[in-house]
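Many introductory courses stop at the sequence. We go one step further.
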Amino acid sequence: MALIQEAEHGAVVQQASSTKRKRLNAHFVVTAMLCVLFAIMYLDRVNISAAASSLKVHFGLTNTEMGLAFSAFSWAYLASVLFGGWGARKYGAKRTLLVTVVLVGLGTIFTGLISGLVTLFLARLAVGLGEGPAFPAATQAMRNWYPPDRFGYIQGITHSASRLGAAIAPPIVAGLIVMSDWRVSFIVCGIAALLWAVAWWLYFEDDPREHPAVDPRQVEGLSISLPNRKARTPIGVLTKRMLPVTAVMFAYGWTYWVFVSWLPLYFSNQHGVDLKNSALLTSVPFFAGLIGNTVGGVTSDAILRRTGRNRLARCSVVVVSLLGTAAFLVPCLYVDDLTTVVLLLAAAMFFLELTIAPMYAIPMDISREFAGLGSAYIIMGVAIAGILSPVVFGWLIDKTGNWNVPFGTGIAILLVGAAIAGTLRPDVPFVVPDDPKGDR
């Protein structure tokens, strides 16, 4: 009898242990899925820059026309970005991300089927239309699944994964081009997005308390905002509150888009590097940015835990980030040695990416219900810069033949962004007025 009771007790303990392990894995799986999402989004975002040389030759495009194609993504990105936060609040991050990622996958596949500049522009519009809502919806999902002192961490690690996608895109696309052609590279990237969408729909739940694999201890104290189709959206007052954030992210985005869009062609034209080596060199700064994203988030959270001051935790990291980026870009204007230039660009990208996690943590700090929608204003700044920066960069190169001119412009914009960053107030909660006129 004692042996039977002992066996039953052991089975219960084993079952409890197994359940505990299963539950403890839920947040890990969601974190991993969000990291994969961000990596795929950036893979599908920057693959065009890695294939730019092939596209220019195949269709006879100028630098200005290539810049126009680059900017198409940002036009749609800007137009659709608010839908991510709004959709996640109304319908949930689960449904919103399913729709947006499927659109990204189809748009990327279509890029491999284009017949010229017009269809290239339309394909990039489709990718931008899908990617715009993705990060705000993901931010709302994070707001429900993670505590405040982990906001910087989860934003940092997921954006590190996005930079991993950006880092591996050039060699992956270059390898696929060498083995097959540029069309295949886009089709493969698009299929990856569609596969993720299926996995997300099958696993994720908007309310972590309803997920069968979640440990109840991990959701204690969470402030969860569930989908509410009747909820009012105070666009006017939220826009006013978030405009300084948008301005800072415009300054960040100007230089960011230079890295994303033009580095392979920069190495090729300015330093005479071939396609394969250009792709590899382009990956170096993005790997540095990958580290910078996580470092920025962890550092910001550490300052918050130590001081309890949101403003110090977020703003100090952002100011150092933008000033550090400018400091490392300046020598690039005067140095010709390729190894030194790559190292300087890597350091600049590391500092630039310190910006991301604390900036994305700001809307999560100030609001539970509008964290996703607030993050859309961060993306709007990047998107506006993405519309202007690639076209202006290409135009300046065509007019001057000097790659240093657009880099110098970016340095000046970074300094302005650092000044604005000091005025941000993540320590002041966002409060919806009783009767916000015109808001829905």
